[in-house]
């Protein structure tokens, strides 16, 4: 019986050897050119137009505040123009001059030594400097590719822009309120605010718009994720 079993094993070995020679086994690993595709996730950062508009508003505010600071037409009356740093007397200015100013030849002179004029000028300068800082921060945020760093710049820009807005609003309120307190010394029946004062309000409107645009444009709106398959047949 043992001899018969040995014969069966020998026959099976010969059959297996013959089968493997006729049909060699193939590797179970797929060829390299037919590897399974892999999926990668790409982060795409898109610059939203609202951020760009906020940056442009910041630039406009800088221009408007410079015009308001250098102009001498914040307050006007017959033969009299008053700004933050100077006042001008016209050739046909009736006397006595406003605010007990001594009779002077028609020309422009240094602004009167009055507290509210100095305060308004200082607040406008603060508004200009802080707006310039906020605009630069917004521009850096637009250029930065890392979205975390980008929103740090945007967040700081919002706070600085709010400070600029508060400064210019205080200047625009302090100036007319304090002027009304000395109106009895104006020696003029008709007074009006000039275009430079209106430009100040224009800068406040642009500042408010820039703050709203930076606050309303949500962080997730700039970040997109895209799946891309790499490899495969």
Short key terms for the protein model shown above:
233 residues; alpha+beta; Butyryl-CoA Dehydrogenase, subunit A, domain 3; two-stranded antiparallel sheet; 7 strands; 55% helix; Transmembrane protein 47; P53_induced; transmembrane helix; membrane; cell junction
Question: How is the topology of this model organized?
Answer:
Layout lengths: L1 H21 L15 E8 L3 H22 L4 E3 L2 E3 L3 E4 L18 E3 L4 H29 L3 H35 L10 E2 L1 H22 L6 E8 L3
Helix pairs in contact: 2-3, 2-5, 3-4, 4-5
GO cellular component, one term: membrane
Main location: other
Family: Belongs to the TMEM47 family.
List the total number of helices.
Answer: 5
Order of helices and strands: HEHEEEEHHEHE
Biggest sheet, in brief?
5 strands, antiparallel
CATH topology assignment of the largest domain? Butyryl-CoA Dehydrogenase, subunit A, domain 3
- Structural class computed from helices and strand pairing: alpha+beta
Number of strands: 7
CATH class of the largest domain, please? Mainly Alpha
How many distinct domains?
A: 2
Q: Please give the order of strands in the largest beta sheet.
A: 5-4-3-2-6
Global geometry = rod-shaped
In quaternary terms, these chains amount to: single chain
Kindly report the average pLDDT value. 82
End-to-end C-alpha gap: 56 Å
Report the helical percentage: 55-70%
Radius of gyration equals 39 Å
In the CATH hierarchy, the architecture of the largest domain is: Up-down Bundle
Uncertain regions spanning at least 5 consecutive residues:
none
Sheet-strand content, in percent, reads 5-15%
């Amino acid at each position: 019986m043992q001899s018969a079993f040995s014969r069966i094993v020998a026959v099976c070995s010969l059959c297996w050897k013959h089968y493997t020679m006729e049909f060699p086994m193939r590797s179970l690993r797929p060829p390299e050119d037919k590897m399974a595709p892999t999926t990668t996730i790409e982060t795409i950062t898109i610059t939203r137009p609202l951020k760009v508009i906020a940056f442009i508003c910041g630039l406009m505010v800088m221009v408007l505040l410079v015009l308001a600071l250098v102009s001498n037409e914040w307050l006007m009356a017959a033969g009299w123009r008053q700004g933050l740093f100077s006042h001008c007397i016209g050739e046909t200015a009736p006397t006595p001059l406003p605010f007990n100013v001594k009779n002077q030849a028609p020309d422009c002179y240094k602004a009167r030594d009055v507290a509210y004029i100095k305060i308004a000028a200082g607040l406008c300068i603060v508004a200009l400097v802080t707006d310039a800082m906020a605009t630069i921060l917004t521009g850096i945020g637009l250029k930065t590719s890392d979205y975390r760093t980008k929103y740090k710049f945007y967040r700081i820009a919002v706070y600085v822009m709010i400070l600029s807005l508060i400064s210019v609003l205080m200047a625009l309120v302090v100036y007319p309120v304090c002027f009304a307190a000395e109106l009895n010394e104006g020696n003029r029946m008709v007074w009006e605010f000039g275009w430079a004062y209106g430009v100040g309000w224009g800068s406040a409107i642009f500042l408010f718009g820039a703050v709203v645009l930076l606050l309303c444009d949500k962080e997730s709106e700039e970040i997109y994720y895209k799946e891309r398959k790499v490899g495969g047949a």
